[in-house]
Automatic annotation (TrEMBL):
Gene Ontology molecular function: carbohydrate binding; isomerase activity
Pfam families in alphabetical order: Aldose_epim (PF01263)
InterPro entries for this protein: Aldose_1/G6P_1-epimerase, Gal_mutarotase_sf_dom, GH-type_carb-bd, LacX
Top-rank taxon, per record: Bacteria
GO biological process, alphabetically ordered: carbohydrate metabolic process
CDD domains: Aldose_epim_lacX
Positions in coiled-coil regions: none
Organism: Zymomonas mobilis subsp. pomaceae (strain ATCC 29192 / DSM 22645 / JCM 10191 / CCUG 17912 / NBRC 13757 / NCIMB 11200 / NRRL B-4491 / Barker I)
Record-given protein name: Aldose 1-epimerase
Amino acid sequence: MSKLITIKNNSLALDISTLGAELQRIEDAKGQQWLWDGNPAIWSGHAPFLFPIVGTLVNNQYHLGDKSYDLPRHGFARRKEFDVIILETDHVCFQLKDDSQTRAVYPFPFTLEIDYRLKEASLIIDVKVTNTGDSSMPASFGFHPALRWPLPTGADRKNHVVLFEKAETGSIAGVDAEGLFTGPRENPVHDRTVILKDDLFKEDALIFDKVASRAVWMGAPGYKGAVVRFPLMPSLALWMKPGANYLCIEPWQGHSDPVDFQGDIFQKPGIVTIEPAKERHFGIEIEINADESALEK
């Protein structure tokens, strides 16, 4: 049975479910809600974690040696119950270990720890993936937080933007109807800014596969907003369902298979290899009630 875990400080209160270790609520000191409510009629997610793959596999299968394994989009972590191994007023750590179900689709022993800490008006999430087996382990990891659009600052939805830390002049990619990696698409960034409009997402997510920035600010100019920092993550996706009141800001390590990909999982673009007894960290920080200048921190 899933449980909700609450942590808080003077600026923020969070609810996190043991199912998927998924964030359910970000509330500020004024009682304002910053995270999408997970309306199941539109999209039931709030902020799922993507492991051990990000995105979709060709035919929902990957190859490992002479075997093939079925694995659904974004992997299995978001559907698994996590154990709580640390719980303090402003800090909680969740843990998932491999079991017979995971080994049937991902034959690698592992430990996945997701650590939430509050620091003033920031939520810091550190993820540690440890290879507890005796052979090399392929893995990807992705964050998928859905912030409210509009944010609870009083600004009109139509005035919201995403401001990048650096100029983003390269081409971007998308996904096809099967969720497979395609590209390029027209780059919507002008003067470091994406003006948010529903039709940007009529063909699904925008993927900045080689993003130059390591932080973005979401909000309406002249109002407070939210900063998402992702120093350890090389890619970024923006996604929403047109007409819905959220925007997912998704730092990724890895992405969907390219449409013509036929290789082994170790050859999959964005996969990292974790050697036995070694670990890999992934992380983000979400700061709320932040000015645009917070990007410079």
